Amino acid sequence: xxxxxxxxVFKENLEKDSIVWKSQTxxxxxxVDRIRYWKNAIDTHSLPASSVVGLEGDFSPxxxxxxxALIQKSNLIVPQHHT
Length: 83
Description:
Helix content is 46%, strand content 23%. The chain is α+β, with helices and mostly antiparallel strands.
């Protein structure tokens, strides 16, 4: 996969903080679990690999996890920012 090297680092640091957002910390374990959640959601909705996906969001941990899941599933991502 394109970003397997990231997941190796995540798995080596599961107890450590990966993201700090709005004064709350999220561990690598949380991130790995949330990426798995989004990958399952992508599969459930039968989104084919290489589909173009518009992702509207901020830099929240959930949006980051979805972004990484889409990359891992080989989707093309068009980031959009709501103003």
